[in-house]
Amino acid sequence: MGIGELDREAHVPEVTGAAAAPRTLAEALRARGDEGLAALLRARPDLLSPVPNDLTQLATRAGTRGSVVRALERLDRFALQTAEALAVAPDPTPYPVLLALLTGTEGDPEIEAALPGAVALLREQALVWGEDDRLRLVRTARELLAPSAQHPSPTGLGPTVAEATSGMSPGRVQEIIAAAGLPATHDPVSAVAGLTGLFTDRPRMDALLDMASPDALAVLDRLVWGPPYGEVTANPAPPVRWLRDRGLLLPVSPRTMVLPREVALHLRGGRAHRAPEPLAPELGVQREYRPQVVDNAAAGQAQLALATVEELLKSWDRGGPQVLRAGGLAVRDLKRTAAALDVPEETAAFWLELCYAAGLLASDGEADERYAPTPAYDDWLDLPPAERWAVLVSPWLTATRAPGLVGGQDAKGRTLSVLGPDLDRAAAPEVRHRVLGLLATLPPGSAVEPESLFARLRWERPLRGAAQARAEDAEAQAGAVPGDLRSRLARWTLAEAELLGLTGRGALSGPARALLNLPLAEAASAAEPGGGVELTVAAGRAATLLAPLLPEAVDHVLLQADLTAVAPGPLRRPLADALAVLADVESKGGATVYRFTPGSVRRALDSGQTATDLHEFLKAHSRTPVPQPLAYLVDDVARRHGHLRVGAASAYVRCDDDTVLGEILADRRSSSLGLRRIAPTVLAAQTDPASLLEGLRSMGYAPAAESAEGDVLITRADAYRTGARTAPVPVPDGPPAPDATLLGAAVRAIRAGDRAATVVRKEPTAPTAAGSLPRTSAAETLATVQAAAMTGSAVWIGYVNAEGAASQRVIAPVRVEGGFVTGYDHTADEVRTYPLHRITGVAELADDQV
């Protein structure tokens, strides 16, 4: 909004007639009810920071560039097209003119039906004000959307005849109107008006174009839908010269011509847009399933998600990879993680980011910084499976980090790493909610056709998607996935929802509907998924629905003669933890296969168990007899376990059997360890104990680490955790949406402030300028407030607080004593006490305001 318009809004008095049309945006807002103001503040929460003092300040803030840009970015395509049409229409614009710009001369019933809603939306958001006979687009929005040479309009229209001829000499203007068959005039203004009248008169314009050659009409056809600018040579071709001479093309520079707006609209049949889109694209259904099939498939994915997260974090129990100096995980460590999980790198990045968002994974903050599970991971393991799933999906919905960006490059050419900086995208939570909400509008069991979903999202936020696409151009050129960010986020959301079990076979599951607070039996309007219900409560409902769908945990395995064990379902927690130490996972799926190896048995012995403990464990939890090869494996490894002892010298090996030490020294594979005998039963090494242990184990021995006291060191898988870490806070996408309490309080404050600013009052002894504080002497101030307290009337005061901030207030004094006045402050809507020495002046309200 320009300075002149704001100045008018600040000084034009309030319209007293109910039927009077508003002359400024402030007056239009003043005519709204409380619900209308609340709707504006709800749609544009940035106007609430801080709460405006009055409606004039609210109107001023609503016209600032940053606020208008944010509001335009949140319009759907048809509302934006309506605003774009207003930007190329006369100001103010009657409703029939706006309708003609959108429907053209032929009309369009769908546009006619949708246009009132679009205008109402623009009015609600204070982007348009005025009655239907004088619609006005906020000046800042007009400046942003109106066509110019630097910023072409999406309509493809160029400047008007008046704008294109503003710098043209009067003689040249007269030549144009003469060539167009118009009578000469005495001034350029009337000449331009005559030419504009010709171009907007359809019969006369048709007659003029009938005289054009096919080549000239072809030139117009190339420019009619934009861009309207074209380059010409110093000696243009005859068709271009014919168009130029009659003003159908006007010069904007020595080498550039432009198609005037009036000419383009005539050629378009009056339409401002080639393809107005009054209706949102329909969502296509790719395939339909029975809802029970969808829920079962989603539950299977949820169970796999829990197993994957547990496997990932368990592999980092003793400390994960180091943190890069710039933050994040190295590419080689991501590759190793993906190989360990047997998933693509993109999927591994998602699981890592999910654990990070849920607060289960963090860096330890040490000098040699590395990643490790947090204490919250241990608490997570103790929860029932459905509740563990809820802990994962709740932060996923609200997280602003986008794992799909991993592997791309930022604007400076730096690779974006998993768990590193620069992965936050503020639009991610909104897109996730919207994608799931749109899936919920389909019949239960219906899988969406992805391209129709992306088209719908582009229709809902066209300007924002385009702006984000421009912001992501550098990333796309550097190797990121092309396309606007919202479409990319939507594509990633579909994949991630399937991984998490929110969808099954591409259709939304019942637990996901509960998570979004959507009806379970029928499709719902997904305008605002969540419905104001706390996410934790909704997650609890979803977990309750998911729990019966998950397979029951079992407390047994099936041991086989090939040194494997088959778990016929998810194992109960103590059994799963113990078996993960004793055996290695060979394959995953509905039934998990574990394999026993010398290394896995040694790992169990290292954790403090004995051979007897392992035999009893296998007998207690196997539905089949313990195979003889497995019993022999346990006994053989246990017999050799601890026979060798490794300690710190730098490192040493000791063994009661000196022949074993002789074998080690004679083995060529031990040369890298730098071993030498210092006693019949002791070898000293030049490497550290950990490397020595690893080297001897690779040679086929089963050494055990020992402490300085000579005791065997017991190592456990859960020995290392980070300090207490909180989950990362999502990056906000602007100010948060206000709740009903805040909206009500803000509306009351704005109304009260507006009353104080616009109330009609009696002039004090010393007249005050409009908008300034009243000035009265101390004696006059005291006498006036005392009289008001006696009569119970309200007065208007100027007040300066201890920080020096000045304000105008309407108060009803009830007590004046000790240098203070106490009364009901209509501006603050509460009883307050003010020092008399801080009141600059006082004035009585006019009789009709009392």
Characterise this structure.
The strands form eight sheets. This protein has a five-stranded mixed sheet with strand order 18-19-17-16-20, covered by helices on one side. A five-stranded antiparallel sheet has the order 24-23-22-21-25. With 850 residues, the protein is an alpha+beta fold. Residues 1-19, 467-482, 520-533 and 764-770 have low confidence and may be disordered. Helices cover 45% and strands 12% of the residues.
Q: Which secondary structure elements does this structure contain, and how are they paired or packed?
A:
Blueprint (H helix, E strand, L loop, with lengths): L2 H9 L13 H6 L3 H10 L11 H8 L2 H9 L3 H12 L6 H9 L5 H16 L3 E2 L6 E2 L1 H7 L15 H4 L5 H10 L8 H13 L1 H9 L3 H10 L5 E3 L6 H8 L4 E4 L2 E3 L2 H7 L17 E4 L2 H25 L15 H11 L3 H13 L3 E3 L7 E3 L1 H7 L3 H14 L29 H14 L4 E3 L1 H11 L1 H10 L1 H5 L7 H16 L2 E2 L2 E2 L1 H6 L19 H12 L11 E3 L3 E4 L5 H10 L1 E4 L4 E4 L2 H9 L4 H11 L6 H13 L4 E3 L3 E4 L3 H9 L9 E4 L2 E4 L3 H10 L5 E2 L34 H19 L19 H14 L3 E6 L5 E12 L2 E6 L4 E6 L3 E6 L6
Parallel strand pairs: 16-20
Antiparallel strand pairs: 1-2, 3-5, 4-5, 6-9, 7-8, 10-11, 12-13, 13-15, 14-15, 16-17, 17-19, 18-19, 21-22, 21-25, 22-23, 23-24
Protein name: Helicase C-terminal domain-containing protein
InterPro entries: WYL_dom, XPB/Ssl2_N
GO molecular function: helicase activity
